[in-house]
Amino acid sequence: MARFILLLHESPAAFEGVSPDEIQRVIEEYTGWRHQLEAQGRLAGGEKLEDGTARNLVVEDGRLEVTDGPYAEAKEVLGGYFIVKAEDWPAAIEISKGCPHLKYGGRIELRRIDEIHG
Hints:
Blueprint: E1 2-10, H1 20-39, E2 43-48, E3 54-60, E4 63-69, E5 77-86, H2 89-97, H3 100-103, E6 107-112
Antiparallel strand pairs: 1-5, 1-6, 2-5, 3-4
């Protein structure tokens, strides 16, 4: 069975002004979806990424440059990911459609994982 990664993109302001009780309900919705995938044997991993912390690395003129990010003015940030197991693209898309992230205005970048065996 193939593995696919769901990269969860969102606006940095997506949950501004949302009450703690509403945030808790959203978290519970994601948790329920995750448990459903686990019960089906479809979940291979996933984590929420820490808000507002990242480092960008690039080599310029032979030197490593490290900058903080994501930037406050960014239109979109990577908020987390799930790795799921599916037979093919249509099955992976079907699994992804159930992710609460889409319900809350987020975007899912779905990528098939290219298994590298060394």
